[in-house]
Design brief:
Blueprint lengths: L2 H13 L10 E3 L4 E4 L5 E7 L2 E5 L12 E4 L4 E4 L5 E5 L6 E7 L8 H39 L3 H16 L5
Antiparallel strand pairs: 1-8, 2-7, 3-6, 3-8, 4-5, 4-7
Length: about 170
């Protein structure tokens, strides 16, 4: 049964009894049954009373998994799209109330978006790598140049760093 048909059938069920309904719920009168076969996955929640729910077969597994379930207040069942479920108020004298909430459908990510983000990440990584390679190359060329001229830059650096530290603390060099 399609979602539209589900709504029409539930509306007819809702009108079948004169007792007031709970807001946001569907009413299933005592002695009545309804078959749900939603187009989209969702959750059925019992708001008042008890429902006897029977899943369409074939069934497998332990005996308590054969498709019949009694769901009380606060209980819920998840249904897949197209899965059939027969509901009946399990209390023969009082109606049961339930709600049906479709599960949210994840937003589809366009195929182009799945490519654009990795390309942007790769562009950033290549830019950082190019900058690092340029700085490394400049350092190696500078070191080779100093070595060719016979300068020992490492000793100059240590001396200059020590001099700056001493001057920062008030010592004269």
């Amino acid at each position: 049964m399609a979602s539209q048909t589900l709504s029409q059938t539930l509306s007819q069920t809702q009108q079948s009894s004169s007792a007031p309904a709970l807001p946001g719920t569907w009413k299933l009168a005592a002695g009545r049954a309804i078959t749900l076969e939603p187009r989209e996955a969702g959750t059925l929640r019992v708001a008042h009373g008890q429902l006897w729910a029977t899943y369409d077969g074939p069934h497998s597994g332990p005996l308590n998994d054969l498709g019949d379930h009694i769901i009380g207040v606060g209980g819920q069942l998840r249904l897949r799209a197209g899965q059939r479920l027969v509901l009946e108020a399990s209390n023969g004298r009082a109606p049961s109330y339930f709600s049906w909430d479709p599960l949210p459908v994840p937003a589809a990510v366009p195929r182009l978006a799945r490519v654009v983000q990795p390309l942007a990440d790769l562009r950033l990584a290549l830019g950082l790598a190019a900058g690092a390679l340029a700085r490394l190359g400049a350092s190696v060329v500078g070191l080779a140049w100093d070595f060719a001229l016979g300068r020992d830059r490492l000793a100059d650096c240590a001396f200059n760093a020590q001099s700056r530290a001493c001057r920062a603390h008030g010592a004269m060099s």
